Amino acid sequence: MLTGQAAHEAAVARLRASYDAIPAGQSVRLAKKTSNLFRPRATSDVPGLDVSGLAGVISIDRDAQTADVQGMCTYEALVDATLPHGLIPYVVPQLRTITLGGAVSGLGIESTSFRSGLPHESVTEMDIFTGAGEVVTTTPGASLFDTFPNSYGSLGYATRLRIKLEKVPSYVSLRHVRFDDAGLLSKTIAQIMETKEYDGVRVDGLDGTVFQPGEYYLTLAEWTDTPAVVSTGSTDLQTPSDYTGQQIYYRSIQELSTSGVGHDLLTMYDYLWRWDTDWFWCSRAFGAQHPVARRLWPRRYKRSDVYYRMVALDHRLHVGAWLDRRKGNPEGERVVQDVEIPVERLGEFLDWFDAEVGMRPVWLCPLFAGRKWPSYPLRPHETYVNVGFWGNVGVGPEAPNRPRNRAIEAKVHELDGHKSLYSEAFYDRETFDQLYDGANLARVKDRYDPDHRLTSLYDKAVKRR
User: Fold this and answer.
1) Distance between CA 358 and CA 362 in Å, rounded?
2) What is the number of domains present in the chain?
3) Least enclosed by CB within 10 Å: which of 122, 143, 335, 394?
4) What whole-number distance in Å separates Cα of residue 179 and Cα of residue 454?
């Protein structure tokens, strides 16, 4: 949806007015009903900031391959605006309702991150509404710009972002390559990161799936204008696969590899949202993967945001916990995390994770940081692998103490990795400040939120309410 500059300015004016209406000294938050966060959120009777008019695309410059985008614009709406021009953002996070501002202030990732980094690395300019009620235009190298990624609204909210776009064709050819050894998997990831190809074929997108120890897959994506799949030395035209109906994308990775095909074809649009239809594999918890339920489940409701609302409802009603008790299952602990592990230590983490947590499948997404970003200080130009795992683990009486989450946190720290803060965190203040450069965050916050009307990052990510 294109909004235009005039509509954008009117929306920013409403945002300012809503800020002015909040009593002095009161904390400031967004009036936002939806979220992709998996940690406790504060509730308040004080009205929030009005961002209702900040959910569109302001303009697209096809020649410069850039777009000016409002901060609350979802990637679904952004792709709908850019793809008809043969353009997409450098990185399109895997869930439709993630917002551009959310991905930049809270980190995002996808299969192009092995060559394009994280979403904020293709941002060239931002307007940020600060805790002081001012709109500050900032660019790379400025303290506010550089500290903003992984700040989760503790410094302000992006109202406008100028991002780079890349040209893309109509189709994506996929190769699913199986590995039995985690060491070879890690070496292959490192080689692809360096050469941007595998077995002599260009790689445009790279991610992986772990189904069990000794069963690892890398999915290699190649942008293509031709609806063809190469197999057994020949090139055959193919109808693109559809994983929004009866077929399930993550299962196809195993099925195609087991059948000896190992190749697939998707439209560019369906490739971008291949994980969203089943929220990776989490839709199975709602019965959405059962053949009968899947046939009856409308396509428009096979979406991550629908499943997220179902999870939120369960958290209020505790239906899942009641069913577990009825079945005699141990009390479960929710383990929803994304962590960055140095590629050379990936095998060590996967072995530990399988022994201590045992959750499957697990998602892998290689990435790098083009330079140091203070609030999420990955070592520049070194290869990391995002490991994502989401679900419940039977723990027993200790479940309320979150023993698995705490153990994961400690292991990631031990392996010199980093953990995203969209879910629960348990760090003490000293460790947190060490990992996320708390001193720099404090300096920037004192400048742009001098009265501390925005909740600090530590309070958002760690403290319970």
Assistant:
1) 10
2) 3
3) 394
4) 47
